[in-house]
Amino acid sequence: MAPRSADAWARVLAALRASPAAFVARAGAEGLAAELLSELRSERQSEPTKGSLLSVIMEFPTQLWPDPTAAEAAVSALLDTLALLPPRPAALRRPLLLAATSVLAACGALAPASAATSRLLPVLLRAASGRATGQEQRALQATACECLRELESCRPGLLAGQLGLLRALQDSRATQAHCLLFVITLRNALRALAQVGPGAPAGLHGLLVARTDRPQGGEIQAWDWSLEAPGAQWPGLWDWTLAGEDIWDPAVPLGQEGDWAEPGPAPLDLPPPEARELRAAVSQLLDLSYLLTPPAQAQMLQQLSQVLRAVRGQPPALLKPQLVRLLGTARVSLLHAVLAAKDTFGEALFTAQDEALLLRRLVGAAQHPALPSPARLFYLHCLLHFPENWPLGPAGEEGTPVLLTPSLATGLLPSLLQDPPDLLARLHLLCLLCGEELSADGSRDCQGTEDRALGYLQRLLASLRQGAAQPGAPRSSVTLCFRASYLATRCLASHPGALAQLTKGLAELYQARPCLAPHFVDLLEQAREVLAEPLGKALQQVAVAGAGGAQALQWHLQILTKVAGAQPLGPTLGFLWAALGQGGDWAWEQALLGTCRALLRGTELSGAGPRDLANLLQELARGLDDPDSRDRGRLYYSLFTHLSGPKLGSALGPTRSTPMLGSSLVEENEGFASALTVQEAQAPLQLRRVSRQAKEPPVILGLTVEASETLYSLELRFRILGPYYEPLKAVQVPCLRPGASPKLLLLPLEPRRPYPALLDISVLYATPSGLTCYAQLPSLPIAFADLFLPLPPSSPQVTHPQTFHELWASCLPGGAESCMWGPWWGQALETLVTKHWEPFVMSATPPTSYQVAIRLPPSSQLLLQLEAAGEDGVRVALRTDDWAILPLAGEYLRGLGATL
Amino acid sequence: MAQRAIWLVSHEPGTPRGGTVRFSRRYPTVEKRAKTFNGSSYVPVPEDDPFCKALLFELRLLDDDKDFVESRDSCSRISKASVYGLPTAGKELWPVVAIQKNGLVYVSVPLVEQTLSTRPPLISISGISQAFDLLFGLIDFFDSGPKTEADLSTKVSQLPDLLLYICPFGTLLGTNFLLDNFSNLSINRAPKQPAWKAGTYKGKAHVAVSITEKVKSMQYDKRDVADMWQVYGTITCKCDLEGVMPNVTVSLNLPTNGSPLQDILVHPCVTSLDSAVLTSSSVDMMDDSAFSGPYKFPFTPPLESFHLCYYTSQVPVPPILGFYQLKEEDSQLKISVHLKLHESVKNCFEYCEAHIPFYNRGPITHLEYKVSFGQVEVLREKSLLIWIIGQKFPKSLEINLSGAVNFNTMSHQKQPVDTICIGGTTYVKLYFRIPDYTLTGCYADQHSVQVFASGKPKITTCRELISSDYYIWNSKAPAPVAYRSLFL
């Protein structure tokens, strides 16, 4: 392929960004990736073009190199390109390092055995620890630190062996990049030590002091632009013993950021000198924290909190001076970090007074008009999840902290003029406060406050409804009104008066704008019963009164469909009769039928309702204009008059939207056709084998069956695959209930030949809702040993040894014989015989000699003579009168040998 | 504590797609961690196009919000703190932090370092506040300077390079996108130089401190509803000082009858705060014992202009007291507005206007009016009267406007609907600015800036009062109440 121009590359990269998966599939990942890498070395391309190629490599490495081996080769190629750069400042050095790190970490190529890893790490470490003088060198150094930090994040513990070096660098350089790198490495190393436990190769001290000689021994290497270290310069530095397999398993939180209240593993016990050293390192970092940018301060504070928490007996008071400083700032991340520290250490760091101050600062910030709205909303959210020292409510749920009194929250009241998110968040807070106030003992003192709060809430809701009732009001103000009503039902649940007012207001809103019916349906769906019941009733009244004239009919039908079953049938039927007289198009008829369908499902089959409904359906089947609609009406009529209630309910399934297909019948069919016929299902049944030893034919296969749901009229059908068995009869079980003792089934097997086989099982059953279901159950194997029967006692006079010898002799010449060696020593033979052949033993001289005769229906026998030969195992001689079972017997015996 | 991806989406109303992705950046190493942390609840970051579509839909920025859509409009779907869930390929991507500003949507998806099968509270996700810091930084960057399409494109083209410094692997290293020479960012020139200070200043020493106070008000002229007003201020500083870490202390002073500053939030460069400053809060009842300054802020300044602190205050009276009466008589509206400047307020405005809008009524067809002072401008199509009061109130400090307005109710349908101003509910909104004045009395002067650095700097200070959401509601109709005294 001819090399592309810069413009051509710009187009290619734009197409790749727009849809990476499709583009890579089209262009081929391999070719594109190779082209990208070779263009980076091309002299024809300008630096900006190469920069944009590298940014694509940084963003889409997993698409370009889906496989780790290829990714590793790519990293090597990038490092080769880096090595080829001229020894002077070049803008490409930083992006090359970033790209190599991204590819290595994102594509899963970061591993001890990876050559690219062992090449990149020294390059980065060398760049991070060099003595940088110029601006470009400092930038490169910071980038190298960031690359190392990212690798450490992706593979915690990776740099634990370099902790000493990193500490020395943080000491001498004191840049943000070095500080952050040291903190995350320290945190991860402590976690790794805690995980490894006392068997760790080197304690914290060992890690902190190891290899500090290099950078501290005066000035280390002067800057070398080549960056590529001669291989021997960092020999054997890479100790992967503490590195995790990828990031740590999130299922076992280790005090990871974000786990909030989860305690990590048991804290690490450090000897006093090590603990002192750790404290010194932490205080040094905290002293530097002012010099970091706010997001970096937040990260460092959080990671240092984790460091202190990971070690037993480390007082968090070290953090206090910084917290006082951060408490006053307006930055979201800093206040968030303070809250995280509060959550981590609780009373150990924040006394009751501190807690009160923090809460007041948070309240102040949540209502501060000078802050941007998203920040205020975040603070409000933090208030509802405030990490209290002694929380009263359930953990993890929204609630108002004990200290947040109504008077403290006066500045956080909702107002109509606020943006919808602000209004809703504050309304939520008001509801929570109201909920608490109202559910309190209701002493006379707070009666006034209570009434005022309720009154305020109601006025606000009324104003929102008024806004939503405006003709042409935007959907946003309508959703705002409904969301506010939904939130308010939380605190109005215990206030029937207020709830009645809300219901009345909403009904009036519906009367004014029936086109909001979908919102009402949604509200009925979401709101708790306490609102849904009275509101459904009120809406039904408005709907059957026919507010809004003919245009509103479709909306009324939606409401009536929703409340069908929950509200009385009579008014709805009256309305439908009236509507039927008006006539309309196909869609109108379908909507009408949709409501009938909902009524069919929800109708109680008592009183006059069913008769009226049947009359209506008959009228629909006769009177509708569209033949399709008439058919559907007729179908409903037939279903209604022929099916029992539960069956009808499940046949008509959940309410559907108006059918969009050409014929409503086609769509209907999808719903109920399957409900009326047998449905294939996943059986809620479990079959288990139980051992059952028959004394005489037939061979009995024992099964137990258990159900996880109630099932009726089960018919279990068995089929043995292959021609070697007589067919089995089906077994009927009238009823199975969960929790009842398992039902035992005994299947008589009648083999035509004594061969193993597979039992295929299916089941037909009825569910409590009236559906008939069919299910295929997992097949069960019938093993060779399942067919074993003892020989019939021929006559009492003949002793067993004699019989055995006769039998033994009678097998030949018609049958077959064989010899085997069994790997059983000592007591094993006796155990084996007891376990498997007890009923079949004809004579024995325990523990060394046994004679076993097995009958295999219909007419074969298998004879075994087992002789223990000391340390050499057991000699097994076997004879059978049926040569065809010899391989089966051999396989069976080998199987026994394997299990011991 | 990292971001999985960042987007900048421009909202283009009226176009077929409603908007375009101007910029996007993905962080594959963070994505890899997300996959491990989120486990089976992991939802991959979608491609730009489907993402843009889902975002604009969720934010209601597409034109098709005629129909009720449950995934967007359901009453139980209440997004918190600008954090949304976006449906993508059958699953929901969460948390998506999205902030709208000036036709742009700034979006980031922070990493959640746990499983998402039940959504954890936002407070437990450390990446959330980092996302806010990042997006606020981006907003500052795009909001500064001119806002033409060309400027926007230039800034967008600078973003990839900026992010290589500020957020190379999805973990935020700084928030300042505004530096002229960003390549200096977070790389210290000398030991113990702050990472947020890119270099050192060379030149004449100069410190500028400006105080901007804004006043909000809701006035009802009703016996049972209390009027509300609130003052809040921002102190902005620009310090051109030589040296690596020059120390500066700014002290804000109040006159004897001044109103104490409360809810003080400072810039992170402030090194320490007096406990009296930290504890002074608007939730407390005001009394004479309240701390009334001087408010000292010691800090090491960054190179750029920055907001040293924000505060609020409770002043005893609103600067302008107003009464508004609107009555519907026959087919016209009779209006009467009365404004009174408080005697303690400096009567020297840069501008002062009263806007009298009429909602849900159609364009103005006829107007008769009488004013005791100033002029009236009529914007007929916008149904708006502007009463231009000018630079000064008359000696009596009281002015009146009365009049009668008629509307063309027939063309009412074409105008946008207001859902608050229904019927008689309406307001007069005041716009004014008084230079060299603060309502709290708060000031900074030559003596209030101490600089511990070589050379005596030139110190300039200024202050101003600006109105913000200053409403006077029609007293003859219900008005939205903003209580501040509900529980007291």
UniProtKB/TrEMBL annotation, chain A:
AP5B1 C-terminal domain sequence ranges: 802-895
Domain AP-5 complex subunit beta-1 beta-barrel residue range list: 711-780
UniProt keyword annotations, A-Z: Protein transport, Transport
Residues making up the signal peptide according to the UniProt record: none
Biological-process GO terms, alphabetical: endosomal transport; protein transport
UniProt xrefs under Pfam families: AP5B1_barrel, AP5B1_C, AP5B1_middle, AP5B1_N
Superkingdom classification of source: Eukaryota
Domain AP5B1 middle, first and last residues per copy: 274-648
A Gene Ontology cellular-component term: AP-type membrane coat adaptor complex
Domain AP-5 complex subunit beta-1 N-terminal: 34-104
Record protein name field: AP-5 complex subunit beta-1
Source species of the chain: Phascolarctos cinereus
Automatic annotation (TrEMBL), chain B:
Pfam families registered for this protein in UniProt: Adap_comp_sub
Domain of life according to the entry: Eukaryota
Localization of this protein: Cytoplasm, Cytosol; Late endosome membrane; Lysosome membrane
Name of the protein this chain belongs to: AP-5 complex subunit mu-1
InterPro entries: AP2_Mu_C_sf (IPR036168), AP5M1 (IPR039591), MHD (IPR028565)
Any one Gene Ontology cellular component term annotated for this protein: late endosome membrane
Membrane topology summary: Peripheral membrane protein
Residue ranges occupied by any MHD domain in the UniProt entry: 204-474
Gene behind the chain: AP5M1
Subunit structure: Probably part of the adaptor protein complex 5 (AP-5) a tetramer composed of AP5B1, AP5M1, AP5S1 and AP5Z1.
Keywords linked to the UniProt accession: Cytoplasm, Endosome, Lysosome, Membrane, Protein transport, Transport
Keyword Cytoplasm: yes
